[in-house]
Design goal:
Blueprint (H helix, E strand, L loop, with lengths): L55 H32 L4 H25 L6 H6 L1 H6 L1 H14 L4 H20 L13
Helix pairs in contact: 1-5, 2-5
């Protein structure tokens, strides 16, 4: 797993034959253990997003409810922080700066998180935005909630990558027909 965003180190369509404990397992034979690309699991969903089975809808509802609850809880925490600044009587300018900072950081975190659901984020950019995303955590939670209403967060990106990998695999495996040693050579 990548330390940065919690996704596996193997890209979609690659074969990862590790067991649950992380050890390398031999590839399985038969239809369940096909030699083609495997879907990349999503956080909270595993690979249920592929066929929308095994409680996919219930998981989406739970993720949306959890993200909404976390967003509301985060807003309460920010409200307490605002009250703390008001009690400290630091002045209107400092209070305004704090409110504007959280609003801008939340908007940027929302946009960054929302864009991360449709395209792979640049790791260097993500590292440089880490502080901003931490300050704007409410925006990230809100983006996660809104995306969970429509699909598993990140499903669209993973589906595109998986279908592309399947198509490439089909092309590679169907390209050769017959025995290549019996082909006539051009002179």
């Amino acid at each position: 797993m990548s330390d940065e965003n919690g996704t596996p180190d193997t890209p979609a369509g690659s074969r990862d034959t590790r067991d649950a404990d992380g050890t390398q397992a031999p590839p399985a034979d038969g239809p369940a253990g096909s030699t083609g690309p495997r879907p990349e699991p999503l956080r909270f969903f595993g690979t249920t997003w592929v066929e929308h089975d095994q409680g996919y809808i219930a998981r989406r509802c739970a993720v949306a409810a959890g993200a909404l609850a976390a967003t509301v809880g985060s807003c309460l925490v920010l409200r307490f922080a605002y009250q703390g600044v008001a009690i400290a009587e630091t002045g209107g300018f400092v209070t305004l700066l704090v409110v504007v900072m959280f609003a801008i950081c939340s908007a940027l975190a929302f946009r960054t998180t929302w864009d991360g659901f449709s395209k792979r984020p640049d790791p260097d950019r993500q590292a440089s935005l880490r502080g901003l995303l931490a300050i704007g955590f409410v925006g990230s939670l809100a983006a996660y909630f809104l995306r969970a209403l429509a699909e598993a967060p990140g499903e669209k990106l993973h589906r595109e990558e998986y279908e592309s990998a399947l198509e490439q695999h089909r092309k590679r495996t169907s390209r050769r027909t017959g025995n290549p040693s019996k082909k006539r050579r051009r002179s």
